[in-house]
């Protein structure tokens, strides 16, 4: 039968063997991670990580997946200014940037129903060329509803 001292020696040997295996597996994972991914450390106020984790879980994704999606969506929206080419700078002055709507293609084949101007569609569901045309259409619909209610009375 083993004594307590003997068990301790056996346990030490097992721990060393397991540590080697874990170390090899960890090294392999780290090597793959370093090859396939870049890392960014994000600092948030205390308590915010838990709120972000809860939100991400509610959306059915990991915190890392949520942060990556948020970054991708924000970068997609942040096309508010577009660098101007060197030829445009010489022709039009020294302005390095132009408004985003001037940099987009204008020939989509769809016209704004309010002002009949050719639209640049950033998404397939876009109906009006601007928020002002959308607001005008809303006011027009509302006034038509009021007129129809007056006719019914």
Q: What would you say this structure looks like, in words?
A:
There is one protein chain. By secondary structure, this protein is mainly alpha-helical. Helices cover 60% and strands 4% of the residues. The protein contains six helices and two strands; from the N terminus they run αααβαβαα. It has helices at 4-36, 48-58, 63-77, 86-92, 100-103, 131-152; strands spanning 81-83, 97-99. It has a two-stranded antiparallel ribbon. It is elongated, with a radius of gyration of 31 Å. The N and C termini lie far apart (102 Å).
Individual helix count: 6
User: Spatial order of the strands in the main sheet?
Assistant: 1-2
Mean pLDDT: 75
Q: Tell me the strand percentage band.
A: under 5%
Number of strands: 2
Protein traits:
153 residues; mainly alpha; two-stranded antiparallel sheet; 6 helices; 60% helix; elongated
Q: Topology, please?
A:
Blueprint: H1 4-36, H2 48-58, H3 63-77, E1 81-83, H4 86-92, E2 97-99, H5 100-103, H6 131-152
Antiparallel strand pairs: 1-2
Kindly summarize this structure in a few lines.
By secondary structure, this protein is mainly alpha-helical.
């Amino acid at each position: 039968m083993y004594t307590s001292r003997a068990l301790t020696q056996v346990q030490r040997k097992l721990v060393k063997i397991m540590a080697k295996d874990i170390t090899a597996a960890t090294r392999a994972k780290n090597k793959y991670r370093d090859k396939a991914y870049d890392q960014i450390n994000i600092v948030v106020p205390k308590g915010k990580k838990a709120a972000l984790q809860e939100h991400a879980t509610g959306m059915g994704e990991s915190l890392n997946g949520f942060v990556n999606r948020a970054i991708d969506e924000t970068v997609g929206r942040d096309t508010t200014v577009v660098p101007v080419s060197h030829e445009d700078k010489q022709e039009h002055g020294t302005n390095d940037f132009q408004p985003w709507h001037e940099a987009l293609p204008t020939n989509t084949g769809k016209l704004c129903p309010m002002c009949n101007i050719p639209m640049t569609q950033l998404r397939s569901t876009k109906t009006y060329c601007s928020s002002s045309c959308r607001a005008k259409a809303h006011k027009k619909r509302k006034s038509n509803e009021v007129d129809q209610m007056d006719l019914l009375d």
